[in-house]
Amino acid sequence: MSNFFEPSLRRESSEIFDQRAFIIHYTLVLHGHGMGNRMSYMMIETEARGRVGLVRLNRPEVLNALCDQLMVELGTALTSFDANPRIRAIVVTGNERAFAAGADIKELQGRSFPDTAMDDFIGKTWEVVTTITKPVIAAVAGYALGGGCELAMMCDIILAADTAVFGQPEIRLGIIPGAGGTQRLTRAIGKSKAMEMILTGRMMDAAEAERANLVARIVPASDLILEALRLGEVISGMSSIAAVLAKRSINRAYETTLAEGVSYERAIFLSLFGTPDQREGMAAFVEKERQAREGR
Ligand code: CAA
Questions:
Q1: Of all protein residues, whose CA lies closest to atom 25 belonging to ligand 1?
Q2: How far apart are CA 190 and CA 34, in angstroms?
Q3: pLDDT-derived band of residue 23, with 50, 70 and 90 as boundaries?
């Protein structure tokens, strides 16, 4: 597969490897685990529901404020589900009140410029979310603010409860979004609306977020997890190689021109004709048609 990826993608892969190595190292040091031990988390909960990995952010007392440790744990959990062949899609969620109310402001308050730059703050930990190869669904109820909104936008699909509230209120703290908000929100909802939200800190409810194409759809809050897992299960039922490469190709649309993006898509499309999934998928379709014809 790798031979038709451009050099820029190969460079990205080595950066991804560095980030992942950091995450695993940091977590092992943090919790004093040996390499063979099962990872235990303090700020998230994880479980496998069939072929879907579920990660629940778990700092309810601070509306799931995204501190360093939580982001390291999240990166580790996602990376571990990504590497697990039994898992084919991942759901990230919070609780009824908050998906996440942003980066942890109490932790941010003590940060200074040289430290943030030297630590590669955000880059080293948060960006791991964007390196996950399997489809990731953000199931959002309550607040998704600042870094919380940015985290949801790093995922592949946002499923919103009718209680969801999205916003980038960083300007009220004297800063701007720092985990991709000015870029991903603008691409999702357009310049004018993104400007208004980011320059004023105005929040939008689920209905407005759906109208603005920030979210795929809205479901009743009581059904959110079930619907997100159902969506993950539908994706899991598809060819896993096709799902992973479809995600990669869609994400390419954000990084390149139309002509290059279509060419990238075409190379992936053609490569899928070398897979058993294509042969089995098409043979099953043709056989079903034949049986239906003969049954008529
Ligand atoms: N960081 C740290 N603590 C937070 C937090 C955050 N982002 N958001 C909420 N909390 C804490 C509150 O301090 C409070 O803790 P205490 O009980 O110890 O006082 C607890 O969570 C509950 O919050 P509130 O009492 O404020 O709840 P509320 O219902 O009155 O208000 C809210 C809810 C409107 C979401 C309000 O909490 C709020 O405005 N939070 C901050 C939102 C924000 O500015 N996010 C951007 C952060 S910066 C960022 O994300 C940078 C980036 O781009 C990476």
A1: 62
A2: 47
A3: low
Enumerate the CATH 3.90.226.10 domain ranges in the chain, comma separated.
Answer: 2-237
Q: Measured from the CB, is residue 151 less than 6 Å from ligand 1?
A: no
What ligand 1 atom has the least distance to the C-alpha of 126? Answer: 54
Give the residue range(s) of CATH 1.10.12 domains in the chain: 243-295
| Tokens representing residue 188 in the block | 């999702």
Tell me if 97 CB under 6 Å of ligand 1.
no
Helix (H) or strand (E) holding 92: strand 89-93
In this structure, are residues 206 and 218 in contact, taking their beta carbons and an 8 Å threshold?
yes
List % helix, strand, coil for the chain (3-state, nearest 5): 55, 15, 30
Of 150, 227, 232, 246, catalytic: 150
Fold of 243-295: Lyase 2-enoyl-coa Hydratase; Chain  A, domain 2 (1.10.12)
* pLDDT tens per residue across span 171-211: 999 999 999 999 999 999 999 999 999 999 999 999 999 99
Q: Can 208 be counted among the known catalytic residues?
A: no
The per-residue DSSP string of 10-42 comes to HHHHHHHHHHHHHHHHHHHHHHT--TTSPP--S
Q: What percent of the chain has pLDDT over 90?
A: 85
Query: Does the structural domain 2-237 have CATH classification 3.90.226.10?
Result: yes
Q: Decide if 103 is catalytic.
A: yes
What's the 135 CA to ligand 1 centre distance in angstroms? 29
Sheet holding 52-57, edge to edge: 44-49, 52-57, 89-93, 136-140, 157-161, 217-219
pTM: 0.89
